[in-house]
Inverse folding.
């Protein structure tokens, strides 16, 4: 049995595969595979571990219908046509749970960085512009007792809300498709409509999946409903916000600041205006980038592969209906 891996993953996962007697074919070039290349490699293997944002649409799945499993080295699976995978009876696995804390840490870091213009002021030092002290210059905003609004109060959103409430006594409001009663009980979170979320949030943090409903959700009209003193944070998927509309909102003072760990497109161009704005902070999609988290993601992805290649149900399926 062979597995194709689209990136170099931690040794802990590779060791599990070797111990299970599975041959590894690993893509090591520092460039994206084309879909044609991915198909050709997969045709020579029995399983796939996808560690990048490869487009696994209906064409790809039809060409690779022999695969016994697609194991994602991620929580998100919006790059996979799940309906087609269901039709072809291909189980798709992800890595749930392990990213919640680390991704919330990044959202919290971005919130702090934006509120105090940290990235911009650090760059001023590098540019030799730390000179005359002005009491009214370089002012940020305080977060204590403010309102954190969570769009998508799942595991990651809950961790972000918990950090905000604990560190800064922030009031928690949220908007979900369904109520989160444990969060309401533990964090005194208040469910609100989407419009109320926009109107009341001092910081609005996005933690939802990318779907047809959420794609481009945060656009010009939405930013115009937010407070001019508010901060927008997105650590979910770049396509959830309209990036040009966000740039315009910051330039026009429609909102006060923005922190992004995800952009659209990725990688971001080095001349993107967001990189030089005083009230913006951008990171290169590092929500899960800790040694411990990436090790655990590799372990879970390989557990999904080993189970499938042994004819068993994978432990972390996103489409369990394939087993019905």
């Amino acid at each position: 049995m062979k597995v194709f891996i689209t990136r170099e993953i931690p040794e802990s996962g590779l060791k599990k595969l070797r111990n299970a007697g599975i041959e590894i074919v690993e893509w090591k070039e520092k460039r994206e595979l084309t879909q044609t290349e991915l198909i050709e490699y997969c045709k020579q293997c029995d399983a796939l571990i996808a560690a990048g944002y490869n487009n696994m649409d209906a064409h790809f799945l039809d060409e690779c219908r022999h695969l016994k499993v697609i194991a994602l080295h991620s929580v998100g699976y919006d790059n996979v046509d799940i309906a087609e995978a269901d039709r072809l009876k291909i189980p798709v696995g992800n890595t749930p749970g392990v990213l919640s804390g680390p991704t919330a840490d990044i959202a919290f870091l971005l919130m702090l960085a934006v509120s105090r213009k940290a990235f911009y002021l650090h760059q001023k030092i590098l540019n030799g512009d730390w000179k005359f002290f002005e009491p009214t210059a370089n002012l940020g905003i305080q977060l204590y007792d403010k309102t954190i609004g969570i769009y998508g109060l799942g595991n990651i959103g809950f961790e972000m809300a918990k950090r905000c409430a604990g560190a800064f006594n922030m009031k928690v409001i949220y908007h979900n498709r369904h109520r989160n009663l444990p969060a309401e009980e533990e964090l005194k979170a208040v469910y609100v409509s989407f419009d109320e979320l926009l109107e009341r949030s001092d910081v609005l943090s996005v933690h939802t999946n990318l779907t047809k409903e959420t794609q481009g959700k945060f656009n010009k009209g939405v930013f115009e409903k937010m407070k001019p003193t508010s901060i927008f944070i997105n650590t979910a998927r770049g396509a959830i916000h309209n990036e040009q509309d966000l740039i315009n909102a910051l330039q026009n003072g429609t909102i006060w600041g923005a922190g992004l760990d995800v952009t659209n497109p990725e990688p971001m161009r080095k001349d993107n205006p967001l990189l030089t704005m005083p009230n913006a902070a951008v990171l290169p999609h590092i929500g899960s980038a800790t040694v411990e988290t990436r090790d655990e993601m590799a372990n879970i992805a390989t557990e999904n592969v080993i189970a499938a290649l042994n004819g068993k149900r994978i432990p972390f399926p996103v489409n369990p209906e394939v087993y019905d």
Residues 2-98+290-323 form a domain with the Rossmann fold fold (CATH 3.40.50.720). Residues 248 and 254 are 8 Å apart (CA to CA).
